[in-house]
Design brief:
- Two copies of one chain form a homodimer.
- The first copy, chain A, is built from 17 helices and 19 strands.
- By secondary structure, chain A is an alpha/beta fold.
- In chain A, the strands form four sheets. In chain A, strands 13-12-1-5-3-17-18 form a seven-stranded antiparallel β-sheet. A six-stranded parallel β-sheet of chain A has the order 7-6-11-10-9-8. Chain A has a four-stranded mixed β-sheet with strand order 16-14-15-19.
Chain lengths: ~450, ~450
């Protein structure tokens, strides 16, 4: 099953805490929110993704009989607690930003309201799911912004951090605006368009390039793409020009060539010239090989005649920012707002809402982070998605999410669309009511500290 | 099943190439090797890991009926080819460096010899498995080297790139010398020791810290660790001093306190003083919170009185180097050596062996990369592990692998043990016979290029 659903995908301290909560009857309602504390220098906005998998995880939360037996035999926990785990299901409520929503620091993208043990147990895996897809969607969005109207394809399964990362990166980049992926399973599981031609090994396994091109063309005549950089890129482009008329006689059209190494700007210009001079004006050029958004921007600036890009490692590992500073924090327990005050890690207490305003040009103008029951102008970004452990309505399709993401990117203020680190920060205003609550929580905790 | 085994965890171009190989009867024996092209600046050595999962994947390679039906209904491939895939199993041979082996650039850590379609199909997932675990073992080894005799624990599930990444990072860091992990499933699947105490939310869910400590202690009395940085670390340490005698009356011993934020060097010294003055000399200090090997080195240099470290995101994402420049390349087909010559990506052709020499001090002195049939002095690092699709002998235990890794780290020359980027490079000599073969392959390909 993709992705994995075992509740043992958790940190041991969660089970330790649950045992203590059960022993002491601490089963009151807890409110947790997941948010990013700070945006990294190279991210001026983030994009929410992974909610569908997070809700799948919650809706199906259940220890298997085998897992329960293993826990019991570990003798780490009381029998009563293991019995409790065997019966445990997620019965809580979830509000969230829909996938594809642009978000900023301190803005919760999901809120979980449930009896404390349930809300606590799911922390590790919920973060694991939401962090990764949001990380990749945010990275992919940068590429989509610098190379609009180019066909972007995820090539990064092999260096993604495991199978689930490869699969979920295909999903996250597609929803952010990529055209598709090379990962076959992503089509089967999510219906994402897949792309692929041949590897260098195919060329190497033949005695010469033309034989390799011809053999491939006859086996894979639909949307034929030939890889031309195994030995000498320009020589190979000339071979394609010589081969194309013979293939055409057999009813096979060369659609594109792929470059995977060397100076892609220079090579693409030379190859374009060779193809055009050879009457192959309709053959497009696709490039790959260690690309990231900075290289895409360089090729766009140089007007490299490249029609599409395969992006691998930099996308699926978010190589410049391989993790976000995010947290899933207790904001309220038993009706009382809570707050962590640890150095550098203080959080805003209570149940919150994010309100987004737009300018006359339709671009985002600013967000307000408020208490949920406060009313502010603008669009409320967190909406109900689960009640009593059940999803509300059918999930959006991946294409719905993709459309939402595209609208969000179109609404970004101009400075936030740029790659450079000096871009203006988006204003997120913390509402007065929230500041007042934080001060009130601090006074209460300080009073307990003295009495403690 | 962990990890995932679907053969659709592959790039589309693999299936495209396989269809063409089948159409043209290209089923001869192919030899592929997996290696890292260049070591990143912050890695002076790498550690091989993931072989067991790679062999599991090969031994169990099989399309499910559901996958075959899906492929057939996609109409992307010929029926004959889909029938071929339904019957496909891995019947090849594998030689490899055992897990835990230290390795360097251009050194193959695995060689696959099989009919071309089999060896090609598995490329994406083999790289995906071997790259990630080797990446994490190599990162973990740096931490083990800078903090010897400290208890290092993987805390990184939540920000690992998916469930499989979290689970495999626990395995890779354990084999490299970590004491264990917080990830519960890693104990169930791999028998790795697990560690865990409480989160800040536990403290926040109580009205005061002392009540939280007391409730936790009574529920989880074994190896009791208390988290003391939720509000004021030093004040909390004094609360532990006041609480400890009362717990002792109930037969409960406080074993450790954990710090998770702030200036860990200063705080650990102050907390050590508070605990010692309070008669708690046996209570150890455990630290966590955004640590990496540079911060570990800083704390070691400052003689911070910390006994163990929880390391999360920097470990499980290998955050400074989230991917290695690695490749799985065709080195021979139908008995003829092959080589890719693409700009900046040329590879050494043929079946290879790595020979490691040691100095009189027992430290590694240099490696020779040669053709497999060449004989050189030193230890031959690649050994047979699979023949005709079947593993040779029982797999080593994780503790065997851990011991091998520890021996390898002890044998590292001193400059390679340091974190800094200027450390001397380890000498890897390319043997004359291999250079001669590469030249011969280039002459043959050039001749074909002219004739082509």
């Amino acid at each position: 099953m993709y992705p994995a659903t075992s509740p043992l995908l958790t940190d041991l301290y969660q089970l330790n805490m649950l045992q203590a909560y059960l022993d002491h009857g601490q089963m009151e309602t807890a409110v947790f929110e997941f948010f990013v504390r700070r945006l990294p220098g190279r991210r001026h906005f983030l994009m929410a993704a992974g909610l569908e998998q997070a809700l799948d995880f919650l809706e199906n939360l259940k220890f298997s009989n085998e897992e329960i037996d293993w826990l019991r035999h570990s003798k780490r926990f009381s029998n009563g607690f293991v019995d409790y785990l065997a019966r445990l299901r997620f019965t809580g409520d979830v509000d969230a930003m829909p996938e594809g929503t642009v978000f900023f620091e301190n803005e919760p993208i999901i809120r979980v309201i449930a009896p404390l043990p349930q809300a606590q147990l799911v922390e590790s895996r919920l973060i694991n799911i939401l962090h990764f897809q949001s990380l990749i969607a945010s990275k992919a969005a940068r590429m989509v912004l610098v190379a609009p109207r180019k066909q972007l394809v995820d090539f990064g399964l092999r260096r993604a951090h495991g199978a689930e990362a490869g699969l979920m990166a295909a999903r996250a980049s597609y929803l952010a605006g990529f055209a598709g992926t090379a990962t076959v399973l992503a089509q089967k599981e999510f219906g994402i368009p897949i792309f692929g031609t041949m590897a260098h090994s195919f060329i190497q396994a033949h005695d010469d390039e033309t034989s390799a091109f011809s053999a491939f063309a006859h086996s894979r005549p639909d949307h034929l793409v030939l890889l031309i950089d195994t030995y000498d890129t320009e020589a190979a482009a000339r071979k394609v020009v010589r081969l194309a008329p013979r293939l055409k006689e057999a009813g096979i059209i060369v659609r594109a060539v792929r470059l995977d190494s060397g100076d892609l700007i220079m090579l693409s210009k030379h190859v374009r010239r060779i193809l055009d001079d050879g009457g192959l004006q309709d053959v497009t050029i696709f490039a790959s090989g260690g690309l990231d958004e900075d290289e895409l921007a360089g090729m766009m600036d140089a007007n490299a005649p490249i029609d599409g890009f395969g992006v691998g490692t930099s996308l699926t590992t978010s190589s410049d920012v391989p993790a976000l500073d995010c947290a899933y924090k207790l904001q309220e327990y038993a009706g009382i707002a809570r707050r962590k005050r640890s150095a550098g890690k203080a959080t805003w207490p209570g149940r919150k809402q994010v309100w987004r305003s737009f300018g006359n040009d339709g671009r985002m103008a600013g967000d307000v982070l408020s208490l949920q029951d406060d009313r502010h102008t603008g669009e409320a970004l967190l909406i109900p998605v689960m009640r009593n452990g059940q999803r509300l309505g059918a999930p959006p399709t991946l294409d719905d999410i993709r459309n939402k993401a595209a609208r969000g990117l179109a609404q970004l203020p101009e400075p936030l669309r740029r790659l450079d680190e000096e871009a203006a920060r988006f204003p997120v205003i913390v509402a007065a009511g929230l500041i007042a609550l934080a001060e009130q929580v601090d006074r209460r905790t300080a009073a307990h500290d003295v009495a403690d």
